[in-house]
Amino acid sequence: MKALNAIRLSGREVLPLIEGGKGVSISTGASSGPWALAGGVGTVSAVNADAWDAEGNLVPQVYHGRTRRDRHLELVKYAIAGGIAQAEKAHDICGKAGSLNINVLWEMGGAEAVLRGVLDKTRGIVHGVTCGAGMPYRLAELAAGYGVHYYPIISSARAFNALWKRAYNRFSEFLGAVVYEDPWLAGGHNGLSNVEDPLIPEDPYPRVLALRQVMREAGIGDVPIIMAGGVWYLRDWDHWIDNEELGPIAFQFGTRALLTRESPISDHWKRRLMTLEEGDILLHRFSPTGFYSSAIENSYLRELEARSERQIAFSLEAVGDHQAELTTGPRRRAIFVTPSDKTRAEGWLSQGFTEPLRTPEQTLIFVTPEKRDEIRRDQTDCMGCLSQCKFSNWADNEKNSTGRKADPRSFCIQKTLQDVAHGGSIDENLVFAGHNAFNFARDPFYSNGFIPTVKELVDRLLTGD
User: Fold this and answer.
1) In 41, 67, 244, 368, which residue has its Cα 20 to 30 A from 409's Cα atom?
2) How far does CA 363 lie from the centroid of its chain?
3) What pLDDT band is residue 304 in, cutting at 50, 70 and 90?
4) 222: exposed, middle or buried (C-beta count within 10 Å: 0-12, 13-18, 19+)?
């Protein structure tokens, strides 16, 4: 493999090895600080990060507000305090020479308020902001206002071109790099568009080349591109390194950075990573963001799949094919469905899925009374963790509503990510991972259950393995 030369990011010479940001409470100062100390760019997640009290105890994120708006304001306050605490922790480890970014999701609730709150208190500590999940038009102006670089995460040249022409061209000097995240291989939320087939992955090389061409036409052809998603062995990317056609390239590691001694995830989560097989990561669209996302297929996702499969269309009147009368719910209200759907529904009812819940698409799903109560409780307890949530219908606007019915086919993402991040079940929660996570079981580096330090992992990456 070609030697990896240092690259200039955020005004600093660093190894072209970037730690991928993982929230909630996964990319912490304890893991990002060592990554920066090893010479790469450490990334602290500012998505509802953990903070500590004066005695060093974890501050539990408990919500007391009576309204969603009140709880949302509490969430923003927690997020700012956590982002500051984790950035300071990372800085304590890597020192002034280390390069640190913070990572946020543009579609998280209060994204701008959180960014401003964290950046205001981390001047000289944070050098860049990595941001994806949506179209962060205001990212450039916001970052430039604090004198830090911005790193938009995109999945197509077309998306970056839109960002550049509408907003970024006015703040070109603060563009640190453009992160191309492969929408078929990356873990977490993926940027698949409506014109791309989730079942047919595309080669990233021509897509990144198209991005580079857009950047050259914009006069920013020397700004690095960071390849993210599906990167495991750098030897597999040897033809990308020092490639004049592609220009300066760096590489981001999200999933692989999960398995280090400094990583805060639980021991049973780490052991699960070592047992994954190819195909164990599911690209699905249950997320309340509306985006595709990739996570370990487990009981949590299988329940969501089954929930959506127990679904039928209905009408309040006998219209067209909807001629069969079905009486459901505590009020025994009659609806009309097709004869075949009535047979299916009666089968689900006999199996204990006695509670029909309406979706925004004029369909019903059938769940148990216990699941119905859980869904309604989670919707009621919403704290506005997203800018728009299809599960609870919260929106970060004046009405605090999307204007649509809440969708019971989705889930409370804040609840499950907080639980798994703090030792909750790996089988009964959403567990994000990239599609190459099966390499943990195949890579000899992890033989006999070996878990490296961050420094050992970075040294290994530099060898091409």
Assistant:
1) 67
2) 28
3) very high
4) exposed
pLDDT at residue 435 greater than cutoff 90: yes
Q: Are 400 and 69 in contact (CB under 8 A)?
A: yes
Q: Measure the CA–CA gap between 188 and 300, rounded to whole angstroms.
A: 15
pLDDT at site 195? 84
Please, which pLDDT band fits residue 134 given cuts at 50, 70 and 90? confident
**What's the distance, CA 125 to chain centroid?**
24
- DSSP letter at 421? H
pLDDT at 159 over 80: yes
Give the total residue count for the chain. 465
Which residues, 6+ apart, have CB-to-CB distance to 427 below 8 Å? 298, 299, 300
* pTM of the predicted model as reported, rounded to 2 decimal places: 0.94
Q: State the Cα–Cα distance between residues 206 and 265, nearest whole angstrom.
A: 35
Q: Where are the domains of the chain?
A: 7-297+440-462, 299-421
User: Residue 26, exposed/middle/buried by CB under 10 A (0-12, 13-18, 19+)?
Assistant: buried
Give dist(CA 313, CA 388) in Å, integer: 25
Candidates 95, 94, 111; CA nearest to 103 is 111
The C-alpha atoms of residue 149 and residue 194 are separated, in whole angstroms, by: 30
Alpha helices in 325-464 (DSSP H): 339-350, 369-380, 413-421, 439-442, 454-462
Packed helices 29-37 and 454-462: angle between N→C axes, nearest 10 degrees: 40
pLDDT bin (cut points 50, 70, 90) of residue 192 is: confident
The Cα 29–Cα 91 span in angstroms is 8
Cβ–Cβ under 8 Å, residues 241 and 4: yes
Nearest to 46 by CA among 140, 99, 109, 134: 109
Structure tokens given for 42: 């450490």
Q: Which of 394, 63, 56, 448 is nearest to 274 (CA)?
A: 448
Answer positive or negative: Cα dihedral of 175, 177, 183, 189: negative
**Which tokens is 203 given?**
């080669």
pLDDT of residue 9: 95
Whether the link from the prior residue into 24 is cis, omega within 30° of 0, is yes
Q: Model confidence over 271-288: pLDDT tens digits?
A: 999 999 999 999 999 999
- 7-297+440-462 maps to which CATH number? 3.20.20.70
* Relative orientation angle of helices 204-217 and 157-166, to the nearest 10 degrees: 20
Place of tokens 């009576």: 66
Judge whether residue 218 has pLDDT over 90: yes
Amino acid at 166: R
Distance (Å, whole) CA 442 – CA 132:
30
